[in-house]
Request: fold
Amino acid sequence: MSEQWIVGVDLGGTTTKLAFINLNGEILHKWEIPTDNSDEGQNITTNIANAIDSKLVELKEQKAKLIGIGMGAPGPIDNEKGVVLNVVNLGWKDNFPLQESLHSLTDLPVEIENDANCAALGEMWDGAGSGARDLVCVTLGTGVGGGVIANGNIVRGINGAAGEIGHITSKPFGGAPCNCGKSGCLETIASATGIVRLAEDEFSNAEAKGQLALIFAENGRVTAKDVFDCARKGDELAKKLVDEVAFHLGFALANIANTLNPEKIVLGGGVSRAGDILLDAVKENFSMYAFSAVRESTTLALATLGNDAGVIGAAWLIKNKLSI
Reply:
């Protein structure tokens, strides 16, 4: 029998990542297409189905090779019904029947899950969390996402909204407004946009100086990467910002771990590429606020799959569903 493939799909607001993945979690072919959210997102699943067919033609492979499509999508999801409950940047109306739509276009089994949960599943299957059945994955990107795995299973909650780590209230008084409608969410501090906001707040102070302030003066903006790069070089303002981010993130993760006692907490997303300068500071704060038994049993690590975590985790949905 020829090797079977799973299609992993990671749906984003601007780009959709696709991959053909074998049953060992290895990516054989991967590519991207733009996410067309016009016309209330009606073209999204059609474009994904067409992209899969086109790639098979390009590779001179038969569709019979594919055993299913696993897909990660942003927002809370009713996993049993295959419905995206609500999402702000794809154009879909509430309760969009994503599973049914993609199945009708491809005639393949389809499983869908929240994109952050897929990233956690990917790291559990073939990444930094490999071998751990109790795992928390935190994605630090434009926002802050989270996926919680307990005894090998995703924790979804009653309405599919479990694991919204980015919306833990981290600064209850005087916190910045969040896109979710609350204020002071962890996302407003520990995301890439949150870090930039913290920096820009400092630049409003005429006394701000150093390399980071110089970059802002020259370019009119800084990035989260600028903050970490300058902190490595000893810039005092940048170090202050990293300390603030690490405090809030370490404090939040300690309380999550005090509740769940996972074997591993994995930090992924673009911000995690800062590496040890972030991880070491987060570990220090985590150790300060974690219960002793948790501190001794839960380890923190950087994700290893990068942008591939979502498609690999999405493929795992099919592997798990079919018990293969």
About this structure: The chain has a mean pLDDT of 93. The chain has eleven helices and twelve strands. The chain has two domains: 5-122+308-322, 131-303.
